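Sorry to interrupt, but I need a hand with the structure work. It will help me judge whether the discrete encoding reads sensibly. Write everything out right here, beneath this request:
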Amino acid sequence: MTEHQPGGHMAAEIDQQPAIFADLVSRRAEIAAVAEAIRGRAPRFVLFAARGSSDHAALYAKYLTEVLLQLPAGLVSPSTTTLYGARPDLRDVLLVTVSQSGGSPDLLEVTQSARERGALTVAVTNTPESELNGVAEMSVDVGAGVEHAVAATKTYSATLLALYLMVDAVRGGSGAEVAGIGELARAALDGSVDPVEEAVRRYRFVDRVLTTGRGYSLPSALEAALKLAETSYLAARAYSGADLLHGPVAAVDAETAVLAVTSAGLGGDALHDVLDVVHGRGADVVAVGSAAEKAPAALRIPVPETAEEVAPILEILPVQRLAHGLALARGGDPDSPRGLNKVTRTR
């Protein structure tokens, strides 16, 4: 048996993403069929249920729903159902449950309860045979394949793409903005090797990292903080750029490492002034994204430019590489973070 190399699974799964994206786009018709059923029910409100990395993907879908579909959207608090027994009237509501494993008991209960209360339920999972798929009325297969590393990489990004394809199809789109996403993902990974290595050198000995983004990039900042915390055991905290200036910026100084996710568009434009303030306070800023070259930062990790609503699918890729590199540089194994399991069961 071949001895496991620390981080080998995570590295391989990061590298698989361009091919996974291309395959998922080729299966757009399957997702469009689900979207057509959603259109037929004409929901007036959309709820998303998720945990962990999937919760960040759900937040991304919330932005897509509110901006592209012009529908109000919210994130479910599962404990209101599982612990407190809330049973709201969910007629004319679409509930999308996002779960890589499809096995968390609280998400199963939320989905079953919502269906009983009149919601149209859709499961977005990487496990087509999961119990969640049996509970929900319809399902979308993320199609990322088995993920061996505990830290989610390919399942997270593929979930983003699946959610985008679904929302885009609901609005009558053709998926044109992601037609070449596989090639762009390969360019993002190949083009970020050197700056990611430099970021690993800069961040190797830090203890505290602040991540930030605006708009569509906020979920990427949240996912970045989670990846750094679970693989490198850093004290990582994510803030919206808007919230950062409301108080937390007082804690920013020359000892603070700041990872800013900034892509071309309104969100990136809005973050620029925030980074001016942070950079002016002496923080060591690393900017990631298609607007990184314009950001006031000590180091920039650019990715190819896309429509702003698609950017999170690409901008997270070098962040995953950074988390992987930092974990190894700090003596850890990002495939098996201490105290974590692949499937977390909560209620």
DSSP finds 14 helices and ten strands in the chain. Strands lie at 45-50, 73-75, 93-99, 120-125, 138-141, 208-213, 235-240, 257-261, 284-288, 299-301. The chain has two domains: 8-178, 188-329. The mean pLDDT is 93.
